[in-house]
Amino acid sequence: MRTMIMAMKRTWVGAALIAGAATLFPMTAGASDGELSDRSVQVFMEYAWSLTPQQYSKQDGTVIIVDKSKPDQAMVPVDVAREVIRVGRISAHAQVCNLAEEQVLNHRSLMRRELEKNKWSDQQTLYINQLHLTTVMLLTGKIRLVEKDGDKEVVVDETKAPQQTCSDEQREKVRGLITAYVQSGPALASNDRGAAASATIAPVEQE
After folding, report:
1. In whole numbers, what is the pLDDT of the chain averaged over residues?
2. pLDDT tens string 105-133
3. Which residues contact 114 (CB under 8 A, 6 or more apart)?
4. Are 125 and 66 a contacting pair, CB within 8 Å?
5. Which one of 104, 115, 120, 169 is least enclosed by Cβ atoms within 10 Å?
């Protein structure tokens, strides 16, 4: 799958910040050293916004409509986005380490925490999910920048993702981080855990 999406030009001012933040290994035990600056977080947020669909259908048939001319209605505060990106970074590690079940549990624990706050609209919940996904794709090399006709574009191209490796020690560290994170949050429903054994986190497709 290869999708091109035009992004806001101000995103490219911070492109170098993404490059500096996009290193996966080595990873510290807390995965919190070198915390992203507000500007770096905003760059991640802008990428995620450019990839957020205008319309998304939930499993229950509910359709979420996103007004792309009003980002403030869907985007979340920087401190919340920073935490979503932090969790997304651990999910990216899990993907590199082939820990599919742990990756899904990490994502679902994040979404359960945010849903239980009872403060986000459907648009914001969709955006939080997209920000997590975008972080994973950025850090695993599935999003890159290309220049076309003088403009910059976000390219989602999973066929071009670079090969990354994960040692046994790194794999166990990631597994431990996710286990601790899931256990420290609200209990996941049994169907969340059951689905994690076979589920993968699919990109939200652009309408």
Report:
1. 77
2. 999 999 999 999 999 999 999 999 999 99
3. 80, 120, 125, 128
4. no
5. 169
**Maximum Cα–Cα distance for the chain, whole Å?**
50
Amino acid, single-letter form, for residue 32: S
Tokens read off for 128: 């939080």
| C-alpha distances in Å from residue 133, one per residue of 35, 128, 147, 167 | 19, 9, 23, 24
Phi and psi, residue 59, nearest 5°: -60, -30
What's this model's pTM, rounded to 2 decimal places? 0.77
Q: How many CB atoms lie within 10 A of CB 37?
A: 15
E strand or H helix that includes residue 56:
strand 55-57
pLDDT for res 157? 63
Other CB atoms closer than 10 Å to residue 130's CB: what's the count? 24
Render the burial of 79-94: b for 16+ CB within 10 Å, e for the rest.
ebbbbbbbbbbbbbbb
Question: Which residues are within 8 A (CB) of 101 and not within 5 positions of it... i.e. 6 or more apart?
Answer: 196, 197
Beta-bridged to residue 57, according to DSSP, are 63
Whole-angstrom CA distances from 60 to 21, 56, 64, 160, 183 are: 36, 11, 11, 34, 28
The one-letter amino acid at 46: E
